[in-house]
Amino acid sequence: MMKRLSAEAFGTFWLVFGGCGSAVLAAGIPELGIGYAGVALAFGLTVLTMAYAVGHISGGHFNPAVSLGLAIAGRFQFKDLLPYWVAQIIGGALGAAVLFLIASGKVDFVAGGFASNGYDALSPHGYGMVSVLLIEVVLTAFFLLIILGSTHGNAPVGFAPIAIGLGLTLIHLISIPVSNTSVNPARSIAAALFAQNGALGQVWLFIVAPLVGAAIGAVIWKTLLARD
């Protein structure tokens, strides 16, 4: 279990450090030109790379919502849910802490949003709470369908992480303008801890919506799509 929890912590660390790091350190530099598309790809690559690196140890969840969805779908034991959540949140927070230490070394650094998620005034383009809630639920549900489908023998052996990583990239391409994309409570908590824009007061939505979406996706998969 310790190896499994360590794998989840390291994987979530990399997801936050790599994904949020691309937004905090690189996206705002015009000559780099990565923009929203580059940040979306960075998040997808973090999951893809760590799924290959440590997925065989822990299952490669790196996301409390994914762990819940897999448990509801019967692919993960409920008794392991809380330890996985703790490991993921700790790993994500450490990733954000290291990112903050690096970013704050810049002379004119201001944390600001720090790649956090939000609605209303904290949404990148001013989307309201209902819009953000809906997109987070829907996209997390589809993320679970991608994970459950690609790891259920529908993708060639060893190719599932590619589908999952590209799925997460697509999710970010859709929703960065709306919510700055969560679909992952650990990622949202980690960024909100270091943001200086009030994101911590809105992080509840980015805990609740992904968990609800994951549960919906798991139920859809289990009742309508899974082979007997």
TrEMBL record:
Membrane topology: Multi-pass membrane protein
Residues spanning the membrane: 36-54, 84-105, 125-147, 159-179, 199-221
Subcellular location: Membrane
Alphabetical list of InterPro entries matching this protein: Aquaporin-like, Aquaporin_transptr, MIP, MIP_CS
UniProt cross-references to PROSITE patterns, sorted A to Z: MIP (PS00221), PROKAR_LIPOPROTEIN (PS51257)
Any Pfam family the entry gives: MIP
Record CDD domains: MIP
Primary location: membrane
Alphabetic keyword roster: Cell inner membrane, Cell membrane, Membrane, Repeat, Transmembrane, Transmembrane helix, Transport
Entry's Gene Ontology cellular component terms: membrane
An example Gene Ontology molecular-function term: channel activity
Family per record: Belongs to the MIP/aquaporin (TC 1.A.8) family.
NCBIfam families named among the record's database cross-references: MIP, PRK05420.1
Designated name of the protein: Aquaporin Z 2
Encoding gene (name): aqpZ2
